[in-house]
């Protein structure tokens, strides 16, 4: 009987130790080698920014932009405007994203139209 109790205690100790070791462990996220990444969330919102901690439960996006669409009521033409989140009413300097809601992460090409628009916006400040 004592041997079964001692064996059970050892099994329980190893299980607790294994859980404690894994608790602080982060998975390695995608490696983005470009300055900016596009992050698509499960609500179809897309944000562009500098991504950190991609493998964590709450990756961080800084220098964040999003695209707003405006419709000309006369011509019905759609214009897309790159908008920095820092210009939003509350002026956020970063976003903490819930990793469970991220469905896609892509690098923003250094020579892409979006990268050029961001560079243009940066040169204004």
Descriptors:
single chain, 125 residues, alpha+beta, SH3 type barrels, 6-stranded antiparallel sheet, 2 helices, globular
Describe this structure in words.
With 125 residues, this protein is of the alpha+beta class. It has a single domain, classed as Roll (SH3 type barrels). Helix content is 26%, strand content 32%. It contains two helices and six strands, in the order αββββββα. Strands 1, 2, 3, 4, 5 and 6 form a six-stranded antiparallel sheet that branches. The longest helix is centred in the first third of the chain and has 22 residues, at 2-23. The radius of gyration is 22 Å and the shape is globular. It starts with a helix and ends with a helix.
Helix tally?
Answer: 2
How confident is the prediction overall: mean pLDDT?
Answer: 84
Radius of gyration: 22 Å
Which percent bin holds the helix content?
A: 25-40%
Uncertain stretches of 5 or more adjacent residues: 19-25
Q: Could you state the oligomeric state of the chains shown?
A: single chain
- Principal-axes geometry comes out as globular
CATH architecture: Roll
- Structural category: alpha+beta
Give the CA-CA distance, first to last residue.
75 Å
Would you tell me which CATH topology applies? Answer: SH3 type barrels
The tally of strands reads: 6
Percent range for β-strand residues: 25-35%
**What is the ordering of alpha helices and beta strands?**
HEEEEEEH
């Amino acid at each position: 009987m004592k041997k079964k109790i001692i064996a059970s205690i050892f099994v329980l100790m190893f299980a607790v130790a294994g859980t404690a070791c894994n608790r602080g462990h982060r998975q390695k996220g995608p490696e983005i080698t470009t300055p900016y990444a596009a992050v698509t969330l499960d609500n179809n919102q897309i944000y562009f920014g500098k991504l950190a901690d991609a493998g964590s439960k709450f990756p961080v996006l800084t220098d964040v932009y999003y695209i707003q669409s405006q419709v000309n009521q006369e011509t019905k033409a759609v214009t897309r405007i790159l908008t920095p989140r820092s210009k939003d009413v509350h002026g956020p300097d970063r976003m903490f994203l819930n990793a469970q809601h991220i469905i896609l992460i892509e690098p923003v090409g250094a020579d892409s139209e979006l990268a050029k628009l961001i560079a243009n916006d940066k040169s204004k400040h």
